[in-house]
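seq as requested:
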Amino acid sequence: MKRFWKYIKPYLAAFIIGPLLMIVEVIGEVLLPKFMANIINVGAANHDVPYIIGMGAVMVLTALLMMAGGIGGAYFAAKAAISFSSDLRSDLFDKVQKFSFSNLDQFSTGSLVTRLTNDITQVQNLINMALRMMLRAPGMLIGALIMAIMMNARLAIVVLVVIPVLIILIALIIKTAFPRFEIMQKKLDFLNSNIQEVLTNVRVIKSFVRGSYEEERFAASNEDLKESSLNAYKIVIFTMPVMMLLMNVTTLGIVWFGGKQILAGTMPVGNLTAFTTYIVQILMSLMMLAMVLLQSSRALASLHRITEVLDTQVNLSDEGCALPERLVESGKVEFKDVSFRYYKENKEEVLSHISFCVESGQVLGIIGSTGSGKTTLVQLIPRLYDVDEGEVLVDGVNVKDYSLRNLREGVGMVLQKNVLFSGTIEENLMWGDDEASDQQIMEAAQAAQADEFVKSFTEGYHTELGQGGVNVSGGQKQRLCIARALLKKPKILILDDSTSAVDTATEAKIRESFTGTLKDTTKIIIAQRITSVMDADKILVLDEGRIMGLGSHEQLLKECEAYQEIYYSQMDKEVSAS
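struct tokens:
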């Protein structure tokens, strides 16, 4: 509870006022049956019309006050619940933004979406319901019980027998419901992941004519969620009829024993009417508590999932950095005996004893077979992952001694999977520099060979891109991502196979532009095509996480067998193709 106090404190007034206003409604509900009994016992029995009118006016005034209390209580409860959940959602989103890649590997995207939406909503609904019921239900229970005992203590014994039975029933229901709701939320995670995956990759699905397969897969996960939801809601479905049965049996018992007392002349008729109403109020208050507790079981399952994210230890942070104000200045990169595993319990290393140095302004080409560790290697430079052994140095300083912000500000990275966001082309490019002028944007696009095709669009740089840049080709997307990185003016530029969808002539123009626009920037280029790295100052050949060769194109062609195999196999293909 202590950790959630910070979400309650700013709205403490609403958390207090809401339940207090609901007490006004409770007081009215407890008094109205007594007023009605007085009308029957006094006004109707004595044919006293003025008394009936006066008591009726009191009842109308009480009903109006109840309405005001109910509306006010509902408003403040909603305000408190919505504000609480909004702040909690913001903190949860901020925490996810701080996650490292390895932290993100612990949760599926669908699971994080569910936690940020559905799970937060469950907590919000619980708070809203609790604030409206936390004083109303106990207040009605206690008030109605006191009034019933004051009216007829002997008749109230019937209720006192039923209450323990209801409490035991509610406890059993809650114990059964909690694990079922937790399973249901996990099934919802899986369904959301399925939906996200299908919608993101819908073009691939259509091109492979796999629509039927995905429909079957979705139907299976949807059916799974349906079954777990029904399994959970069986508890809710079972609760209401059983409680209504108990309430009706109790009411019948009250009417039976109360009717005998009326016939014996020991109880006024009006008192039986009021007493019956009080019994219904007592049982209804217990039903309200049961519904709150049922909602609690689902909300607590959601809260547990939320705290899992909040409690996740972010394994990449600025904690312990020795030079928090230091900026990347020259862009020199050095690896010293670096080894890395994605899963620490796994003995097999993704990178093993990697050592090399790239001076400021140099071009390093990295080449190797699929799965050789090329992408993993460059992700260690901006600390997207941390090394297990050895050191990664930038400007002679261990990357762990920089603040993450300053380190990553100095590194421009075009990832293997190019990502654009909804919005205009200009807005996407300004991710590199949100204060860039139109001229700077155009120059970056020209360097990336993107300006020509952008201007061919009717809206030019104001052309709206679909989610993920679906309305531009793969090569156009790559060039826009390169332009975005160039606009950042980084000291280190990493291109992770980011020209694979671009023709060789365009790729050559992009590389040529680097000599002017990025003269002093260290450039690291991962490529599958050997022609993309032949002109680099140094070429690093990787195989199964180990360095097989390091040197210029001429050196490697003489000394590195792995490089020779790649070179001659690709050259032979080009000759055959021509």
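The chain has 19 helices and twelve strands.
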